Amino acid sequence: MLVFRSHARVATRALLCKACRISAIRHGRTATLGSKSKLLDFKKQRVLQEWAGKKGTGAKGQATETPKVVTETAGTLGLVNNGTHMSFSALGVPQSLTRTLGSIFNATNASPCQRALLPAMLSHSDVMLKDTTGAGKTLGLVVGLLSKSHPPLLTPATVDTDTPRDKPRPPHTIEPLHSQRYLHTLVIVPTRELAVQITTWIRDLSPHVSPSDHSKLVQCVVSGVDEDLQFNFLRSETPRIIVGTPVRLQSLYNRRAFDVSRLQTMVLDEVDRLVEARGRYDTINERFKKVVHPMAGEPLVDAILKERRAARQRATESKKTGDPMLRQMQVVICSATLNNPLRRNLTLMRGWLKTPILLDLNGTSKAPSNITHRCLVVDMYGGVKPLESSQDTSSRSRPETADPGDEEEASALPDAADEIIETISRICYEEKVQSGLVFVHTSVSMSALVRKLNAIGLKADRILNTIDYEKSTLGGPGTAVRNVASNVSSAAFNRVSEPSRADPTTQPESLLSSSAESSSRESYHRPFASFLSGRTKLLTLTEWEARGLDLPNVTHVFILGPPSSPASYLHMAGRTGRYGRPGHVITLLGGRRYSSRMQGLFQLLRLPLEKATQA
Q1: 316-323 long-range contacts, Cβ below 8 Å, gap at least 24?
Q2: Can you tell me the distance from the alpha carbon of 507 to that of 484, in angstroms, rounded to the nearest whole number?
């Protein structure tokens, strides 16, 4: 009997290990779509077989909605198109959106990341996406959000009881129904720059929406803009999509500026900067700090999920048919550094995602192969030497006596020292750099760095100066929108939970559709216009400000000083080499004090250092 139990335990452990190897989070119920394993649970496989046999008809010959979703999922698994290229229309994207993608982004075929992401999003299942930087994750999210269906909310039209009727109303008359607008999608991102970029993409990919109606489609909520102005704007016009940063969203959510009771999709882009998971080797104090002082996105998402699930429970009990509140909300998270502890934290511990589809397309966190990496050590005399790899330093025999010049080489330099700035200038001149990013630590003065770069002939600017947040988020000059928002009566917004009606004659939208504002919104501000046009060659920013940004013309990335973590280095390096283009990442160290640290980082990430000559 004891022998039988021991064999049973060994078999159970073997099954658990096998489940862990295929990355099944919920005991085999989670689908893992990756380069190594492409699995689907038995229920979806059975539906696929039924769909192939019945060709889109139900048991009694009636059409069902499930085959459409299953067909899109089959396309992701390669069951529909076995070729290397697949158009967006084959993945379920509308034809109008496909044409706009080709005209604006010159994108005719979906990338491998987008081929896996789009059908998973359209299936309305929870999704977890991990892929290398520059693979098109954010663009795939935007395309997926615009391709999703928008369930209508039909309510009886309001009847004007004050106006006398010519004829008495007959009994048993069917009241006309009107479609009401409600918040459909909420996108939470860690930085203002990424929020502005996503908002701009949504507007660009919706050419059928007039500029005066952009606020009904999407609104951007970030810091740097008057909060009361954003509050009045959200209360006056209920958008379909809200894109924002967690701190400002939390403040407006506490003020009941928007209603999440009918929220259908919530996207957490760069989720590792919104939520902090408990590490395996964290001490008691570190775990206590993470619980007492959570990141800004954690309490916001917890509150939204709690309210949304409670609203769905109330709608189920009251048997509201046809209400979008009855539909389960979809949660989509993605990041290039989505590690296993964070996955377990979001699914098992927090319960944010229910049986999610895991799209792990790169396995371990790594940089794209089309990017070259260099690390240069600058001494106090302006001399530049390439950092030797750990294999070279270990194979070379060390002298018994220290060289007198080692003390001078080990002398430290600030990250933005003049010698380092001159090295950047020399590299830009020799390699003819037209567009690049300069990353510095938060302790470095950005203004002083920009003055130094401009003094030596490099056209540089801060990334904050390339975006007008008020014009980019509100779609027009702040004075015009401010005057309109201040004229809106607060009495019209005493019921936040009810979404605003689509009929413009039944709400105070006439105030917001004035000729002055509509003409100003036709030419809303384009972010990064000076950098993309070539007027500015270098942008200075911190490692946190560039999360998720897509600047396709960047060819060089300069990192001044050591990065805070390997994941931070991957995200900074991923700002170049977008969509398979060649890119160059150059790390500049002031002295040899961080040499061993950088050698360990490159060895951990398995990044080969380019054998560069002295600059």
Answers
A1: 322/154, 323/153, 323/262
A2: 14
Distance CA 562, CA 440 (A): 9
SS3 252: helix
Give pLDDT tens digits for 290-331: 888 888 889 999 999 999 999 999 988 887 777 888 889 999
- Give CA–CA dist 216/179, Å, rounded: 14
List, in sequence order, every residue forming a beta bridge with 375; answer none if it has no partner.
587
Q: What are phi and psi of 581, to 5 degrees?
A: -75, 155
Cα separation of 350 and 301, whole Å? Answer: 10
pTM, 2 dp? 0.75
Helix ranges (H only) for 77-136 are 95-104, 112-122
Round to the nearest angstrom and report the end-to-end CA distance of the chain.
74
The C-alpha atoms of residue 101 and residue 119 are separated, in whole angstroms, by 17
Single out the residue of 256, 255, 275, 115 nearest to residue 188, CA to CA.
Answer: 275
**Domain(s) of CATH 3.40.50.300: residues in the chain:** 15-151+178-279+290-360, 371-397+404-467+527-605
Q: CATH class for domain 371-397+404-467+527-605?
A: alpha beta
Q: What is the pLDDT of residue 76?
A: 31
pLDDT tens, position by position, 2-41 = 444 455 554 545 544 444 444 433 333 344 444 333 333 4
Q: Find out whether 121 and 332 touch, Cβ atoms under 8 Å.
A: yes
